Automatic annotation (TrEMBL):
Coiled coil: none
Region named Disordered: 126-153
A Pfam family: PadR
Occurrences of domain Transcription regulator PadR N-terminal (ranges): 15-83
Organism: Homoserinibacter gongjuensis
PANTHER family per the UniProt record, alphabetical: TRANSCRIPTIONAL REGULATOR YQJI (PTHR43252)
InterPro entries membership: ArsR-like_HTH, Tscrpt_reg_PadR_N, WH-like_DNA-bd_sf, WH_DNA-bd_sf
Descriptive protein name: Transcription regulator PadR N-terminal domain-containing protein
Length: 212
C-alpha cells in the first residue's frame, strides 16, 4: 500500500508555511503544492479547503473576498505556531523530498510497465500476422508475393500499436496538464481554442497522409 504524502497534521503546518510566504487563493496553494512535488502530487480542493477552514477556526489564518475568489493570509498566531514548530517543519521538508522521489519512482515504474506491455503487444501482433494469416506457399515464384504481403501486414500492425501508444501518451499528458490548470483556475479559452484548432489540422494532415 502506498504511504500517504503527508503524515497526520503535517499538511496543516505546510499550508501555514506557504501562507507565510504571501497571502494566496486556495487554488494558488493547490498549484504551489503541485509545483513543490514536480507535478507528481496535486492535492484536491476537498483536501485543502477543509484544512483552511480549520486553520481559520483556530485563528491561524484569515480569509477575505477578492472579487470571486477568497484570499487566505496567515495571522500573528499562525506565525507564532510556525515559529514554535520550525524543527518539525524541517522534518516535513525532508519528508516532502522523500515523497517526491518515491512518487517519481512510481511514475517511472508505471511507464516501464506500460512499455513492457506495449512490447508484448507488438510481439503478439507480429506472431498473429505470421501465424494463420499467411496463405499457403505455392511452388515457384508465388512464395515471394505471399512473404511480401505477410511482411506488410506485420509492419502495419506494429505501426498501428506505435500510433495508438503515441495517442494514449499524448492524451494522458495533456489531460493531466489541463486538469492541473483547472485546479489552479488558470485554464484559458485561447489555450482550448489552440488545442482544438491544432488537433483539427493534425487530424486532416494525418488522414490525408494515410489515404495516399
Amino acid at each position: 500500500m502506498t504511504p500517504p504524502v503527508f503524515a497526520h497534521g503535517h499538511l496543516r503546518l505546510y499550508l501555514l508555511s506557504l501562507l507565510d510566504e504571501r497571502p494566496q487563493h486556495g487554488y494558488e496553494l493547490i498549484q504551489g503544492l503541485g509545483d513543490r512535488f514536480g507535478g507528481t502530487y496535486v492535492p484536491s480542493a476537498g483536501t485543502i479547503y477543509p484544512r483552511l477552514a480549520k486553520l481559520q477556526e483556530e485563528g491561524l489564518v484569515t480569509k477575505e473576498s477578492d472579487g470571486r475568489r477568497t484570499v487566505y493570509a496567515i495571522t500573528d498566531a499562525g506565525r507564532a505556531e510556525l515559529a514554535s514548530r520550525q524543527d518539525e517543519l524541517a522534518d516535513i521538508e525532508t519528508d516532502v523530498t522523500d515523497s517526491v522521489r518515491r512518487l517519481a519512482d512510481e511514475v517511472r515504474s508505471s511507464v516501464n510497465d506500460a512499455m513492457r506491455t506495449l512490447k508484448a503487444d507488438l510481439a503478439a501482433a507480429a506472431r498473429d500476422a505470421r501465424a494463420g494469416t499467411e496463405p499457403p506457399r505455392a511452388s515457384g515464384g508465388g512464395s515471394a508475393g505471399a512473404d511480401t504481403a505477410s511482411d506488410a501486414r506485420t509492419t502495419s500492425r506494429v505501426l498501428l500499436h506505435e500510433a495508438e501508444a503515441a495517442l494514449t501518451s499524448f492524451r494522458a499528458e495533456l489531460r493531466s496538464e489541463l486538469r492541473s490548470q483547472v485546479a489552479a483556475a488558470r485554464l484559458h479559452a485561447d489555450a482550448v481554442e489552440l488545442l482544438t484548432t491544432r488537433l483539427d489540422e493534425v487530424r486532416r494532415e494525418v488522414t490525408a497522409a494515410l489515404r495516399r
